[in-house]
Structure formats: C-alpha cells, structure tokens
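Page 37, continued from 36.
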C-alpha cells in the first residue's frame, strides 16, 4: 500500500465528511487519535466539541438553531477501562456497553448499521485503541450500505498490531462531495505524519476545507504511563 502524507490526504477532498485517524507519534512514544467533523447543512455546522469526563461529546453551538439532533448530537469519544473508543455516532455507546458485557469491538457493532439518512446512508466509522505493554493495537470498522442499496449492510473490520512510529490509518465517511454522497471504499488509508500534539493538531485543522470543517479532536496517549493530552478545535467560538 502506498503511504501518503496525512495532512495532504485530509485536504484532498473538500468534503470527506467525518474522519478518524489512529496511529503512533513519530517519536514512538504516543498512540495518536484524531476525529474531525465537517458539515454542509446549517444543522451540521451548528456544533462544537466539548469535554465530557475522559471523552467528548458534540453540542449545539446555538441551541435556538438546532433542528434535528438525532444524528449530530452524540459522544464521539469514550474510554472503557484502558480502551479508547472513537466513532462518528452513538455507536460509541454501543461499543462501550458491549465491552461492559464482555463483547468484542466487532461483536458489539454487529447490532448496528449505516445511518438512516437516505439517500446518503452515511457509513458508521469506528475505532478503538488498546494499550499493550508499552505499545498498542487498534481496530477500525466501517458499516455501510451495499453499494447504496439499504437492503444490505457491509460490516468490515480492520485490525492493526504494533504500528510503526509516524504512521497510522485514516478512514472517513465519504469519498468526496456528491449527491448522493459516495461512501468510503477500501482499506483505511496508510498515512504518515509527524510533530507533537500541537503541531499535529494545527496541521490537520489547517488541511481541512475552510468552508466545511466544524470541529477537531486530537489525543496523544503516552505509551509508557498512560497519561493523555487532548486538544479540541472548534470553528464556532
């Protein structure tokens, strides 16, 4: 697989939708998690990320302008024991509750499907990071319609052990703008990146389309002691 620059890849399309990046910092010391949301409608753009315990949730920036909260208000990031879950919808809770019942990441997501937002049928993308003795493994998942047919759901999971420093995987909901919006295809993109949490956050935020970007979450997890650093950027201030 060809490795691409994350910041160039994230900015290649004006509307990749929602995106998840998981990988290892270039110094090899941290697990890196990033999640961003973009929006075309006023309802989608009327959001911010706010911290919620050891995770985050979305919140309306202007409550008076909130239209339909069903698919835009959720907790993208939650932590269960030492596992960090990141998703583009309320399947974060599905995975969290599944772990509590002894289910795996993949088993938990079998009860879910793509979003019911015809004609786009937006894929549900998810990831989980699990530290392991000074290193970590991670998984990514996409639940999407069968080539636009809502009668079928494709549930695909990818698993990665011992990632290399400065490398990660990038998955997003759409392949670009369109009507209907085309769903992501293939394996999560192999990407390279560098920098501490502040430079990483700034470069990723700046790479996203200025009209459509809404919010960005970045977390670095120290692989030696489990300490975390988090950055949140909201277009609405």
């Amino acid at each position: 697989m060809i490795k691409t620059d994350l910041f160039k890849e994230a900015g290649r399309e004006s509307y990749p939708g929602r995106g998840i990046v998981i990988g290892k910092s270039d110094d090899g010391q941290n697990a890196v998690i990033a999640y961003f949301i973009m929006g075309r409608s006023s309802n989608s753009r009327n959001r911010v990320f706010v911290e919620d315990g050891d995770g985050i949730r979305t919140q309306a920036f202007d409550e008076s302008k909130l239209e339909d909260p069903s698919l835009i208000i959720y907790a993208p990031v939650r932590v269960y024991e030492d596992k960090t879950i990141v998703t583009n919808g309320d399947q974060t809770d599905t995975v969290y509750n599944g772990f509590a019942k002894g289910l795996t990441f993949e088993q938990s997501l079998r009860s879910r499907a793509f979003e019911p937002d015809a004609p786009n049928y937006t894929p549900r993308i998810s990831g989980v990071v699990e530290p392991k003795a000074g290193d970590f493994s991670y998984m990514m998942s996409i639940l999407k319609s069968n080539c636009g047919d809502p009668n079928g759901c494709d549930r695909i999971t990818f698993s990665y052990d011992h990632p290399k420093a400065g490398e990660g995987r990038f998955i997003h909901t759409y392949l670009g703008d369109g009507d209907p919006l085309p769903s992501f295809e293939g394996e999560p993109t192999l990407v390279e990146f560098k920098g501490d949490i502040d430079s990483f956050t700034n470069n990723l935020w700046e790479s996203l389309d200025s009209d459509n970007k809404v919010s960005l979450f970045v977390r670095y997890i120290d692989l030696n002691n489990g300490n975390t650093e988090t950055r949140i950027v909201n277009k609405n201030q």
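The chain has one domain: 4-234. Flag for discussion at group meeting. The chain is about 15% helix and 40% strand.
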